Amino acid sequence: MSIPLHDVLVTGASGFVGTRLIQLLKASGYRTLGLDLVPGPFTDVLADVRDPKSLEHYVPQDGIVFHLASVVGIVEVLKRPEECYNCSVEGTRNLCQSAEKQRARIVFTSSSEVYGDGGGELLSENSPLPPNHGPWPRASYPEGKLRAEELVQTFHARGGDGRIARFFNVTGPGQDWTKGPVLPTFIHHALKGIPLPVIGEGGDVRCLQHVDDAARGLMKLGLTEGLSGRIINLGGMDSVSVEQLAHRVLSLLNTPGTIKKVSATERYGGPSRPCTHRIPTLDLARDLLKHEPKIPLDKIILETAAAFRKEDGVDEKEHCAEA
After folding, report:
1. Pick the CATH number of 8-170+211-235+280-293 from 3.40.50.720, 3.40.50.150, 3.50.50.60, 3.40.190.10
2. Is 278 helix (H, G, I), strand (E, B) or coil?
3. pTM of this prediction?
4. CB 3.0-4.6 Å disulfide test: which of 60, 177, 211, 279 passes with 172?
5. What is the pLDDT of residue 317?
């Protein structure tokens, strides 16, 4: 098979963030190669990051690897914990080994879940991490991300250029609500007249960011010189409790919906450890990347709703006129 000439490899190229990242890279003139297990508009190669022989052909010499391949969404994590863990750990190990041979830069997308509950404090990149992340299978996601971070740090210690982004609640138009993300689930339910499922009392606080802000920050982390070994939080402009978010969705969309209090098992199909407060400090992103989120929560809600309506064949202008 002929491999397209490229400077940048993106794993997870068919994913929610991966597609946005590749669009930004291409618009900036970079030659990209998209790799994923499933086809997508920017997926050039169908391959598994857990297979080291496949990766040897695709890591660009003196190039950049954005490693986004991951099992995403609590629903999927609970169904496929071993795949979730191994995709992060084995995939990252394989990419680091190939990147060391090819003198390539590794940019790994980790998660705010490595911080655990959050403890009510603003989370900086130096905040202490919990000794464990609760029971399996839910812990497979944060534990896999944390082990992968350690591999990237080892790659850096051995002389490689490795960086880590910790994403906080990436969301927006195009996200698959069936995998469990809170905002698309609320919007889907509101538009369909289904009660919005809020776990417990709904007091857990989150910081949501638009996928375009996340992709912009990630690209800057990968392209900015002199940041090897850095871990950088990438988050959004607004923090909100889950119950407040539900009410905000209903209000902005002007739908006569209701809220239903549920358990984590009812919501996701299995138990999930609660997280009461996970909000980042964004000082390093601002200082080192010159990056700040630009898209406020209300706009994220409206754009995501517009995408759902478009999928359903509803004319957005017509809907707005009726509302």
Report:
1. 3.40.50.720
2. strand
3. 0.94
4. 211
5. 46
